[in-house]
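Retro notes
What went well: the complex prediction finally ran end to end.
Inputs used:
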Amino acid sequence: MSDPGGGLSSLHGTPHRRFNPLLREWVLVSPHRTQRPWLGKVETLAAPSGLRYDPDCYLCPGNERAGGDRNPKYISTFVFDNDYPALLPDAPVTKITQGNLIIAESEAGNCRVGCFSPRHDLTISQMSPAELRAVVDMWKDQFVALEELKWVRHVQIFENRGALMGASNPHPHCQIWANATVPNFPARELNSFQDYTDQTNSCLLCDYLQLELQRNERVVCQNDAFVVVVPFWAVWPFETLVLSKRHIAAISDLSDSERDLLGDILRRITTRYDNLFQTSFPYSMGFHQRPTDGNAHAEWHFHAHYFPPLLRSATVQKFMVGYEMLGSPQRDITPETAAQRLAELAETVS
Ligand SMILES: [Zn+2]
Ligand SMILES: [Zn+2]
Ligand SMILES: [Zn+2]
């Protein structure tokens, strides 16, 4: 073979995914991103400063970003294309295979950043209903706009909150990644939803929600449209799952009042989190919505996951190492105990 890398050189500057034949899943590789400047400024790794405006923040209104663009003086939410995206919409189409074990293909995508508010210090847990509604509407508008791009088959909206989760900037914001393929976790969930519906003619998460509401052992809080539970199979100590009560597949299916209620439930669970260890609680959260591949995906049930790393206090975190990396996840505190502790906490900022 003339190319000892099996054609791999054609992918060196291109976002692509590589197949892991042992785990049968994909890893995303973004080699072009090594050109970005180092952004992990040490001083921004501190807890939120309480500043309404930070002249050094690249997300605050009117400020210059690392790529040289200047943010408008926005007064509500603000979305822009990530200056150093992991994915590019125009990645040249390439695919390589070697012996059915070296498998890679280029991956097209969009990476955007969505600021929740002009306020540098205003977390979801502290927002007013109107401010929360603006964030929910931003998510819905982004989902709809990205879904309209023919090549986009999955939209991942997620928030990394706090330095422990790798968020180098405390200004509340989310990321929105749109891919040409469905990533590992939603792809697995899609298979589970489809199998369950094939076998029972019902919905996996509708049925699970009914069990949780009947048992009432792991329910943290609810409103007319959403329920927060610590899932029976939770891995992270205070992991939660936000389930819509109605069987819908995407944020764009929410009614007007349900969009208000989504903001309400997210504020309530994040306030409980903040009150748990009296700290601005770090987490990764994200929505899992139906693929945007043109199919209806009636089997899919809209939900959000919260994965918080803290275990016992503001400084003691759970590590996923050793057996968790090599064997399977393990936990000490039971999901029932975690749910009880979260359910007992106040929903007002203390
Ligand atoms: Zn800011
Ligand atoms: Zn359902
Ligand atoms: Zn999910």
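What we learned: The chain has a mean pLDDT of 92.
What to try next: split runs per interface for comparison.
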